[in-house]
Model the fold of this input.
Amino acid sequence: MARRGEIQGPDRPQARGAAPRMRYDAVFLDVDGTLLWVDLDVEGYVEDLAPYAANGSLTVERAARPVWEGLRRHIKENIEHRTQEGLALFKRHNAEITAAQLGIRAPTELLARVAERRTSFNPYPESEAVLRRLEETGVGMYVVSNWDLELVEVLEELGWMRYFDGVVVSAVSGVEKPDPRLFEEALEVSGVSRERAIHVGNDPMADVKGAAGAGIDTVLVDRRGDIQMPEATFVVRDLGELPDLLGR
Done:
């Protein structure tokens, strides 16, 4: 039975053969900036909505800032909308705000569809292979993410839900990283002790300090190599280093 904040993953097949001994029993994984990055197709947004702009004045240069602000607004405020109906209303209202800033007059449903269609979730090149390698070890894998109610849908579309034993998401739980309560919930869901869990993420505050506040070891994914974070247990440049690191 799923606990509060948890969305169960499908039963994963047992790894064949002798799995390498892992130093942890559960791996918690952040999503945005760790497994994938979120992108906006501003050109496509302009193409879709230019006919509805006053005086045909919509350009990529003019649209870029309001469109990205809309995404940041969604990230910041989605935790306040914890039902599907509430989230849908919020997304429509958010799309209306962006359109109003750009002088676009179009049906709200169209604005919301365009905003959704022009948002993409792009896996890092190594992510799929790393998830597959970790699955082969038999280690438990759990998503621990600040995200809206539609995270599982995103993971399913990527074909990734089969890798995870559970999903702990802020919009369901009502708390966001770095609040250690989200990590405490992940420990409860996984059923492992904090000494046998490790959290992997790219955000020094939300991921490293948040997990450390719950007494959990951390892996900081520093793709640009410019983050000074001595509090992290380990630092890697990308996820490709993770299986060998955890298997030592």
Remarks:
- Residues 6-35+124-246 form a domain with the Rossmann fold fold (CATH 3.40.50.1000).
- Residues 149 and 155 are 12 Å apart (CA to CA).
- The longest strand covers residues 140-145.
